Amino acid sequence: MDFAFTTDQEELRSAARRLLAERYPAQRLHEVADSGPGWDADVWPRLVDLGWVGLSAPDGGGSFLDEAVLLEEAGAALLPAPLLSGVVALPALVGGGADPTRPTALAWAEPAGPLAFASPDRVATVATAGGSGGWTLTGTKDDVADLGAAEQVVVVAGTDDGPGLFLVGLPAARATVTMRSTTDRTRRIGALGLDGTPAAALAIGEQARVVLDAVALRATAALALESVGVAQRVFELAAEHAKAREQFGRVIGTYQAVSHRVADAYVRLELARSLAYRAAWAVETRESDADEVSAQEATLAAAQAKAAAADAAVFGAEAAIQVLGGTGFTWEHVAQRYYKRALGNQSWAGSAASLRALVAAALLD
Amino acid sequence: MDFRDTSSEAAFRAELREWLAANLPAGWAERPPSAGLEDLDFWRDWSAKLAAAGYAGVTWPTEYGGLGLPPTFQGIYLEESARADAPSHLGVIGLGMAGPTILAWGSDEQKARFLPPLLTGQEVWCQGFSEPGSGSDLASARTRAELDGDEWVVSGQKVWSSYAHIADWCILVVRTDPDADRHRGLSYLLVDMHCPGVEVRPLRQITGDPEFNEIYFTDVRVPRDSMLGQPGDGWSVAMTTLLHERGTLGFSLTARLEALLRRLVETARTTRPDGVRPADDPLVRDQVAALAIDLQALRFTNYRALTTLVKTGVPGPEGSIAKLHWSEANQRLSKLAIEILGPQGRLDGGDGFWGGFWAYQQLRSRGNTIEAGTSEILRNIIAERVVGLPRSR
């Protein structure tokens, strides 16, 4: 039993933390968040150069555990770039021979109906085989995170042979991108209209199901890891303020009503961190040797981690806003950005209640 | 990062599983859970068996009857014991607190004298720290010890002392220098509970069980060499004890919670006399799942703390979380059990479900956030020592 990252992974963490802290001070984060595109397009080539994109692809030199480190640091800095979407979509891109280093969005959900990865057979978007091995897609996808930043979208669509995964390059003549107004301005959501849009097949039928399972598992674990980063940063914001702010002639951190709230944020953070790292290990191990970790074990590990981590991030952000007092409630303070990410992660790809329902079924049925 | 056993860990686990299967009484796994403490004779016998097999002191030095293994193996021992629902060793205070403190501070003579009978359960230990006027604030202890020739003469009163009614020895914090600063006036004695002048009065707890006691010391004469450390070292020695109380406890607490969660699942799946099956209720399902997640979070936080301990020799800050979170999870769990029992949740003893098991657990759990560091003290410790906030006092 060894529950620690390697020296290389810790070095990757330090490098990521340093770079992201330098690049995204509060003011810069606000600028990007309030800008039209809502993401930092200039950072992408830099991330690719550093080898942080497509890290767990066959020639990427890393594994999901390395990506786990980056996802956490991306959460702590609110990195306004589609790193998480790329990590999640990676099994589809790699399996279909697509380039994992381009900014990618994943279109699994539809305006009416469940998340595509939960029941790929109920997808209304239709894929039709065209000439020369190409396909066209028709339908509407919604709830597509990072759609505005994406140069390519992985789309789940139905074929005569079961569900399929397809790649659509953006911009495309027969595709419309409609960005929605999102609470979290650092992770924008859009709807994708497809009307006979040309697409390349990444996986079809049984193979698509296998890839979708891998994608779903990654999504749950990745959101847990990113949420741990968010929880870490808001905990730090609360602790820093509690150490410095004076009222009634005393530092407010000496008041137990304040310090115990901060201690509780720390406890939730560390418990969630343990679950998120364990989920990361389960995903990595399942991907490298499926006999070592069963699908159920990995799915439950990710579900437990995401339920706990998303809640911990929301709890921590609310604690930070309370401890920061009036300042924490302003648009100017960065706490609101983290709070909105925390809430967004809670809602996305399985609420805590729906994830607990999975855990309950495994125990009680 | 790898959660799988190494080959030596896997071998240890397999051997232990076999040993538990061979040594637990026939039909052990199928027995109904019992409310309250184990039968004392059975408990002593079981403790001796554990010691003979080496499992009482997995991490202890071999010269004192331990196996001398890294703490990971202690974790495996506790996990497997919980899985088999095996009784714990009788020396809860001895193994968890007195023993590690004697190992850290004791002379060779003290180690040779006290450790072997502690491991076998022949000698039971209790803890004399809290006093009526001195609970969380240990440095205010007033029980006195004065040197008279070659003996310390001890007078005072201790309270909330578990196992004192069956204990042979007591780790006792006393004030030896009334003029020194609060912390510096304290010393740490090992006191024979069978000495004249020691009187134990059971205290009935909220459960009705007399699990802990008051101890009165009236001119109790204790040999001068019965001290751990020097006069005035009492605070430092006591901190060693409490570090172990909070540090190594995580695994056994989590193991206990795991066993209790299994009982909760079993209870939820049992159809009540009124025809309700609690496991069909979505609100119950949600709470059971939340507790299962709490349990896993504790488990993996223990692993993380253990890795830090093995790599650095110092327990990680994660360890401070275990007792705080366990105690609150344990309260939620047993309260949920009472709730899902419905009307029969009001019955205890022979009339209650499983002989009043849950009624006992639920009431007993209220002590969890008080004993061994109240939740308020633990939050102070986290805020001050881990988060680095200024002291509140």
Which key features would you list for this structure?
heterodimer; A: 365 residues; alpha+beta; Butyryl-CoA Dehydrogenase, subunit A, domain 2; Butyryl-CoA Dehydrogenase, subunit A, domain 3; 3 domains; seven-stranded mixed sheet; two-stranded antiparallel ribbon; 10 helices; 9 strands; 51% helix; 16% strand; B: 393 residues; Butyryl-Coa Dehydrogenase, subunit A, domain 1; four-stranded antiparallel sheet; three-stranded mixed sheet; 11 helices; 46% helix; 13% strand
Short description:
With 365 residues, chain A is an alpha+beta fold.
Describe the protein's topology.
The complex is a heterodimer of chains A (365) and B (393).
Chain A lengths: L6 H17 L2 H8 L9 H7 L14 H14 L5 H13 L8 E4 L18 E4 L5 E11 L6 E8 L2 E8 L5 E5 L9 E16 L1 H39 L1 E2 L2 E2 L4 H33 L6 H30 L10 H13 L4 H13 L1
Parallel strand pairs in A: 1-4
Antiparallel strand pairs in A: 2-3, 3-7, 4-5, 5-7, 6-7, 8-9
Helix pairs in contact in A: 1-4, 4-6, 5-6, 6-7, 6-8, 6-9, 7-8, 8-9, 8-10
Chain B lengths: L6 H17 L16 H14 L17 H13 L8 H14 L2 H13 L4 E4 L15 E5 L2 E12 L6 E7 L10 E7 L5 E6 L8 E12 L10 H14 L1 H20 L13 H31 L6 H23 L15 H9 L9 H12 L7
Helix pairs in contact in B: 1-3, 3-7, 4-5, 4-6, 7-8, 7-9, 8-9, 9-10, 9-11
Explained architecture:
The complex is a heterodimer of chains A (365) and B (393). Chain A is of the alpha+beta class and 365 residues long. Chain A has 3 domains: 7-95; 104-208, Butyryl-CoA Dehydrogenase, subunit A, domain 2; 212-364, Butyryl-CoA Dehydrogenase, subunit A, domain 3. Helix content of chain A is 51%, strand content 16%. Chain A is built from 10 helices and 9 strands. The relative contact order of chain A is 0.12. The model of chain A has no long low-confidence stretch (mean pLDDT 95). Chain B is an alpha+beta fold and 393 residues long. Chain B has 3 domains: 7-90, Acyl-CoA dehydrogenase/oxidase, N-terminal domain (Butyryl-Coa Dehydrogenase, subunit A, domain 1), CATH 1.10.540; 125-233, Butyryl-CoA Dehydrogenase, subunit A, domain 2 (Beta Barrel); 248-386, Butyryl-CoA Dehydrogenase, subunit A, domain 3, CATH 1.20.140.10. In chain B, 46% of the residues lie in helices and 13% in strands. Chain B is built from 11 helices and 7 strands. In chain B, helix 3 packs parallel to helix 7, helix 7 (249-268) packs parallel to helix 9 and helix 9 (319-341) crosses helix 10. Chain B starts with 6 loop residues before the first helix and ends in a 7-residue tail after the last helix. The chains are: A alpha+beta (365), B alpha+beta (393). At the A-B interface, helix 6, helix 7, helix 8 and helix 10 of A face helix 8, helix 9 and helix 11 of B.
